[in-house]
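Bench notes, bay 3.
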Amino acid sequence: MHTSCTRPHPPFLFGAVVFAAVALLLGRGVLPLQDSPAFSLESTDGVRILLGSGFPNPGVHQFSDGMTIRGVIELTGVAATEPGALTETIDDAGIVDGMALAIDVPGQFQAAVEQGWMPARQRLALGILLHPDRMSRDDWVTLPGIGEKLAAQIESDRQNYGDFGRFEALERVKGIGPAKLKALRPFFVDEDN
């Protein structure tokens, strides 16, 4: 007499184990039930600054809100490596989210701190909202609906009539109407600074 042993098929057993694991993870809240964003636009408790040339560890770093440029330079140790070179030329202005700093040391006992802004693409990736007066022509082109021609018009308007001061003032640029303002609104800060 021949007896055969029946065993469950491996695909069925594998499927049962996977189903049980997914059910367990969903029950514990480990897996999200909906799509999550590629990056978070939540506010942080600090100010993100791009440190460029002249700093010991270039790159994006986060500092305490209310810190000054002088404080950043002292905290990064640049003042210790260039004693006397930076003491007279450091600005005591406060740092702003999205700022870029570099140190140029042309002579042995002189140095200059160069201030600018991170590229708009980098600020947006970090969740830093933009300001129309802190944008270059290349920054404008990175935004949806802004091509080379409109970016040039925005820059020309700013050169001819001065800073915008606030987001809504962009409407003075030919080619930017209420619909374009509404589309661009999510990328810009609400305040007038």
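Next record in the batch:
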Amino acid sequence: MSISLEAINWLAVLGAIIANMAVGAIWYSPLAAGKAWLESTGRSQEEMEGGGGAMALAIVPAALNATIIAILASGLGVATAGGGALLGLLVWLGFVMPTNWIEVIFDRKSYRTALINNGNFIITMPLMGAIIGMWG
């Protein structure tokens, strides 16, 4: 197997990272699932204020997710938004969702937290895949 990083459209990866961060900012805001997520984690809004450092750190996993989706898309010949979205959905289904449920089982995170987090990922992973598939 050969992985060619030269074949990756890095602007598409950047677009996917931006989309991931934008959806996450909306998803975890009080306008969407933010209040329910805070309740499910036992945190308060005051604890989360000034969380710019955490947001900056969230770019790292977003960048890793986008890069891996781009590598997979390149290797599999995915070159459409629909194919990329399907790839992102499969990455969520095969890797992200099971990992979140292992945290419920062994780390005793709440089911509600896992459902909220997976709600974000089931949107962002196919979206990142669609962007990469369309631009890749």
